[in-house]
Amino acid sequence: MAKPDSVFIFVGTYPSEAAARADYDLVKELHSAGAVGSFDASVVTKDEDGKVHVNKDETATRHGAWGGAAAGAVVGLLFPPAIIGTAAVGAAVGGVGGHLWRGMSRADVKEFGEIIDEGQAALVIVGANTLSQALDKAELKAEKQMAKELDVSTDDIDKAVRQAATEVA
């Protein structure tokens, strides 16, 4: 049974960055319409050198309560730092990643990481569990997807994001 304040993670793979961005835009529309609570989302791509890039729409980030830290923390858990081609993930991985890590098993982390490897682009969404129902209704166009509710409180993530923001500032 879903806890009202638990965290939900969605990872979907897409044939192109444009396809992943289309679903990213749909999630932003759901948020604007009030269908989802706090969330963070990123489009993740790999370049020809195997570097992972976390692509964010900074306008959307300013409107989201988690400001880029939650999705960045998930990416930081899934990929070794040496292949992440952006510094945006760095500060988020600490406190936020620690909370998310406690909510996932090693098998979960491996499975999430493998699904991203299979696609040319991925959409990573982290949010309150109300996101799960909204995404089901939205019918995202991911070729493959994995979703998991974590036994982690959104309040804990909020506190960790605020802490990470003060450390970066």
| Main beta-sheet annotation | 5 strands, antiparallel
The residue ranges in which pLDDT falls below 50 over 5 or more consecutive positions are: 58-64, 87-92
Q: Order of strands in the sheet with the most strands?
A: 3-2-4-1-5
Number of domains: 1
Broad structural category: alpha+beta
- Total count of helical runs of at least 4 residues: 8
- Helix proportion of residues, in percent? 40-55%
Overall shape: globular
Q: Write the element-wise H/E pattern from the N-terminal end onward.
A: EHEEHHHHHEHEH
Strand content: 15-25%
Chain-averaged pLDDT: 74
Features:
23% strand, 169 residues, alpha+beta
Overview of the molecule:
It is a single chain. About 8% of the residues have low confidence. The chain starts with 5 loop residues before the first strand and ends with a helix. Helices cover 48% and strands 23% of the residues. α3 crosses α5. By secondary structure, the protein is an alpha+beta fold. Strands 3-2-4-1-5 form a five-stranded antiparallel beta sheet, sandwiched between helices. It has one domain. It is globular and about 40 Å long.
Could you give a short description of this structure?
With 169 residues, the chain is an alpha+beta fold. 48% of the residues lie in helices and 23% in strands. The chain has helices at residues 17-32, 58-63, 69-78, 90-93, 95-102, 106-118, 130-138, 154-168; strands spanning 6-14, 39-46, 52-55, 121-128, 144-153.
